[in-house]
């Protein structure tokens, strides 16, 4: 394996480990987490079920009918052209400089989309809207991942790639042991995709799993967001979730790109 590629892949692996082992902000863990648990304790089970169902239907809507509409919000051909140019430069001269040029579009997408999520969450939160914005929020998440995937030369059309996206979301926002389990599943799926192994994907089941993980991560925020004025917290939470997912997506897709290059 080329030394540049090896060094870059090892760096990304270390960043991935750092992401997965991040315990979060100590102040938040000691001050905010106990408060969140108290709020969760008073959230009615019926509301939890409603939220779970809303996220599930939101994912279904986006995956079955929403992709073509999401693609209207960015220039897919332009992103693919930029990737082709950057990839050509990497193939002509394998260097850290040209490899890192691939990050520009991915970083821009993550920054813009996380900012959009702030506006969407804050405005609807101020209006006391906590549930109807879920399809919009999921669309922003998918837009972020789709743009990042294209930036590193990957599509998101096939069922196996859709499953990759859904597992990626789970890993990015799940907690502790659950996160490790999802990451193991994601790594196995990635290996099978790269080895061109036939994969039997139960997309409907994975949509349900991923929607539950996202619902659990946002349970308290969506409950609070349903309260006028106090609901502005929705913008902050939305930004954090989108930014976190975008960061992890960049790590995973860039690593896939480099591993593919190392196997050529």
SSE blueprint and pairings:
Elements: H1 3-20, H2 26-42, H3 45-70, H4 76-92, H5 96-101, H6 103-126, H7 134-151, H8 159-173, H9 176-194, H10 203-225, H11 233-262
Helix pairs in contact: 1-11, 3-7, 3-10, 6-7, 6-11, 7-11, 8-9, 8-10, 8-11
Fraction in helix: over 70%
Q: If you average the pLDDT, what whole number results?
A: 78
**Biggest sheet overview:** none
Radius of gyration: 19 Å
Number of helices: 11
Low-confidence stretches: 25-32, 117-131, 223-235
Kindly, what is the distance between the CA atoms of the first and last residues, rounded to a whole number of angstroms? Answer: 10 Å
Proportion of beta-strand residues: under 5%
Q: Tally of extended strands? A: 0
Order of helices and strands: HHHHHHHHHHH
Number of domains: 1
Structural class of the helices, strands and pairings?
Answer: mainly alpha
Query: Which outline best applies?
Result: globular
Task: Walk me through what this model shows.
- The chain is mainly α and 264 residues long.
- The protein has one domain (3-262).
- 81% of the residues lie in helices and 0% in strands.
- The chain is built from 11 helices and no strands.
- It has helices at 3-20, 26-42, 45-70, 76-92, 96-101, 103-126, 134-151, 159-173, 176-194, 203-225, 233-262.
- The chain starts with a helix and ends with a helix.
- 34% of the residues are buried.
Summarize the structure.
This protein has 264 residues and is an all-alpha fold. 81% of the residues lie in helices and 0% in strands.
Key words describing this protein structure:
globular; single chain; 81% helix; mainly alpha; 0% strand
């Amino acid at each position: 394996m080329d030394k540049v590629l090896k060094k870059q892949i090892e760096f990304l692996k270390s960043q991935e480990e750092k992401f997965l082992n991040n315990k979060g902000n100590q102040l938040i863990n000691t001050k905010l987490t106990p408060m969140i648990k108290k709020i969760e304790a008073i959230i009615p089970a019926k509301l939890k079920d409603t939220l779970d169902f809303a996220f599930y239907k939101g994912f279904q809507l986006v995956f079955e009918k929403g992709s073509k509409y999401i693609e209207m919000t960015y220039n897919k051909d332009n992103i693919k052209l930029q990737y082709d140019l950057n990839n050509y430069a990497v193939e002509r001269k394998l260097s850290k400089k040209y490899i890192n040029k691939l990050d520009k579009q991915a970083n821009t997408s993550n920054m813009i989309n996380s900012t959009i999520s702030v506006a969407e969450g804050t405005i609807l939160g101020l209006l006391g809207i906590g549930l109807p914005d879920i399809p919009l929020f999921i669309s922003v998440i998918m837009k972020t991942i789709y743009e990042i995937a294209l930036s590193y030369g990957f599509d998101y059309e096939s069922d196996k790639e859709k499953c990759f996206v859904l597992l990626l979301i789970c890993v990015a926002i799940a907690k502790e042991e659950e996160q490790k389990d999802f990451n193991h599943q994601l790594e196995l799926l990635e290996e099978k995709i790269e080895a061109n192994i036939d994969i039997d994907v139960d997309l409907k089941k994975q949509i349900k799993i991923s929607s539950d993980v996202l619902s659990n991560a946002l349970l308290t925020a969506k409950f609070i967001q349903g309260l006028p004025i106090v609901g502005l917290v929705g913008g902050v939470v939305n930004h954090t979730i989108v930014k976190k997912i975008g960061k992890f997506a960049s790590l995973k897709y860039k690593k896939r790109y480099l591993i593919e290059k190392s196997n050529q």
